[in-house]
Amino acid sequence: MKPARDAAYLARVRRLQCRAPGCQRTAHHAHHSTVGRGMGQKASDYDAFGMCHDHHYQFHSGTGAFAGWDRNRRREWQLEQVSATQLTLGHEQCK
Length: 95
Prior knowledge:
With 95 residues, this protein is mostly helical.
């Protein structure tokens, strides 16, 4: 089954505040969670959360605010951000 796509939901995600620790900037990027996905497999749009450009890059490169984070810390943090975003936008994905 293909992951859910919802352009309107992603547009709302990009208008939220960046979810990186301590950041106050507007997100502008919808980061799709990498939890449970392999190379080239994008998560459902409902598994996305907002990040500013700088923090989105830092997350993927393991630098800046995310330097030293191991796989488990990154995984747990992403799951928390997805849940918080779904609650903020009034969407709970059926599991």
